[in-house]
């Protein structure tokens, strides 16, 4: 089902501060369950490169007719109650009703041309807002505004800019390049939330020092939940606007640092249970490094595609700072004790999962070898997300084994061991 839509350039400069830019509405095809779809093409006024209106992407729709000159019924719906105007439901019938309502505005012809233009502009703005709310369809990478261009191996399936949080959150249930990124960390976040709550409500009898141990393991859960929730939120609202994308990308990167710092806390606590001094020193060092990573991730350049490798390097480096306490632990406990009671195998598996994820992310594998084939599923960022959740779970498993060992051994310490 297609619908007649006026095409032409629309310039928004007033009313809603979010709606600023050049847009063109082209009649589109039906995009499945959402009903009629229209291509919403956005040209960022600050963009200097690709013109999204390139001939390849935009067939000529004939003489341009400004929506402002839809003479049959271009009146502003000044008499429509406020709640009606706010209702951005997908129902196509409503559009017709509103058009009818707007026709009732008898005072329109008596207005000055400037006032007519102003009212018509608001009407169009409202219509465009509805398009953002639910009737968008995915667009190719090369028509994205610069601030949405991240991975040029993902050729199609991108969300257009949608300066509406409601539209962004609705897009969680649509299929596009970010669907997998959102759901992997949304489900991971819920999983760790449930696991964390279950752990916190374990009977105190299962711990040597219940409050202390629950706080220490709680820090790990807090880091994991913050990381995963910042991540799925970032991927959800990434297409809102340049400003929102920047703020949430910084939160996303900070979340990775929180996960790494939080992972160190219970591991150092149990591994150096009998050597509190080195445990404390390592904790301070990892906190300083983590805060340094958070600080650098607040710089705008850090989120740009050119710094993808640097980003991966910063967080892998932060994780690899654990090599020093690991060597300390292995030397003081011996390899056998470190791998059996010290759960070194799980720690190595966790490191392997995180580093593999970071390498896939930095090198953009597999989409690098199959451009356009991994647009929706199995692209590097999704694999990286899955490996982060798996790595965090493996770490939790190792830490809970360490906790069980401590419970079995009791609170006492041997003369020269760290464990
Ligand atoms: Zn991500």
From TrEMBL:
Record keywords: Membrane, Metal-binding, Transmembrane, Transmembrane helix, Zinc
Signal peptide range: none
UniProt-annotated binding residues for Zn(2+): 235, 381, 385
UniProt feature, compositional bias: Low complexity: 63-75
Subcellular location as annotated: Membrane
Biased composition (Acidic residues): 89-103
Protein name per Swiss-Prot or TrEMBL: Adiponectin receptor 2
